[in-house]
Design brief:
By secondary structure, this protein is an alpha/beta fold. It has helices at 4-12, 24-27, 55-58, 67-77, 91-103, 117-134, 155-159, 164-167, 200-212, 238-249, 270-274, 301-305, 327-342, 345-360, 399-409, 431-454, and strands at residues 34-38, 41-44, 49-52, 108-114, 142-146, 177-180, 217-222, 252-256, 280-283, 295-300, 369-375, 378-383, 412-413, 415-417, 420-423. The model has no long low-confidence stretch (mean pLDDT 96).
Length: 455
Amino acid sequence: MTTDDDHAGLKKNLEHLFLDMTQMKSFRQAATIIRHGDGLIVTDTVGNQYIDGLSGIWVVNIGHGNQAVIDAMTKQLQRVTFNMPIGTINEPAIRLARLIADITPAPLTTVKLVNSGSEATETALKLARQYFLQMGHPRKTKIISRYLSWHGATMGALSMSGTTGLKTPFEPLLGGCLQVPPPYCYRCPYGLRYPDCDVACARMIEKVIDWEGPQTVAAIIVDPVMVSAGILVPPDEYLPILRNICDRTNTLLIFDEVITGFGRVGKLFAMEVFGVVPDIVAMGKGMSSGYAPLAAIIASQRIADAFWGKPDEHLEFMHGHTFGANPLSSTAGLASIQQMLAHDMLEHAELVGKHLQQQAQNLYRHEMVGDVRGVGLMMGVEFVTDRQTRESFPAEVKAGLKVQDACKRRGLLLRANPDWIALGPPLISTQVDIDRMLEIIDACIEQVQEEIQDL
């Protein structure tokens, strides 16, 4: 264990860092610096232990400290950790691409390995645009996404995102990216109620394509479960309707499964849960379980065929990253996925996920809980000041952040924004682990509710 002096020195050196979307002046005052992880538990530099209720950030699906992955990476370190990315490739990357092709449904066949989820979604955007250029439709460049979505922090990925506060500091963004209202059934943007709405949020997308001109729209990109909007799970009909719209308008359907992939929803991918196969899938996070930076896209054979030709035809995908298809990262991905499959983690996650969704309904006992939603090992709780009217708390209350802080003090790490919290523990969590996490959340909601009433 580190000494207090060590911790103080680390805190002082935080002045040399920008952390993600974090005000460093206040963070440094009470910084949580993680030193060690084992299974579900992470330990900071002063010895505090926390249940990692968010798997890092939807990443460490197989848990911390998996020795089989560590051993595989150690062996690869002794072989080679980098190869020239133009003109050469490495063995782990080839094996990983084949494995991904094997575990995804037809007609998905062809993989591009990158480093992060943002790179994956931006790769999907670029692939869609170049595909239609090479297919003789150069005007098909527009991308439709949803408000409240998050597809990443690079400029292309950010342009496809619909989270206002994270976008505005960097505007103007990439042209040709359009947003439509999301499937937010609890707060329907159209003022309707499911199922009487006839899933208007999906059908409106076809009108947008018609109004923009089908000859100008390249793709629709959706995160099957809108995690960054508070775990919004669409109606069962929503994604099949989008698939049908794309087929009729010659539009590509892109799934951003960076978070929902690799067991998070109780299946390998959310496309299995909803019974829809897109044209391109972006994946990352749980792909390597955080043991090394890794992400990818996989595209259908129809798309891949457009990039297959003679050198002088110049059909190759004009896109790349220095560390894409890195041998060490590819090894981490191979080993992580193999651990999931060899140890029945998907079946376990599906079973424990059902337990989570069932037991989470008990949180409705708190008046400030307006909606509890989720699928698999992801659960969201939205807070309201009035359950009947669904009125949100005033902005200054920040109920979700208060619950998050209270949970952290009790040893549970969560994701939150002012109006909701989200739980996403590793796939190795047991029902006992889930019960403990929900016990902490339950107590913290009760505490915060009392604090708010006393204001």
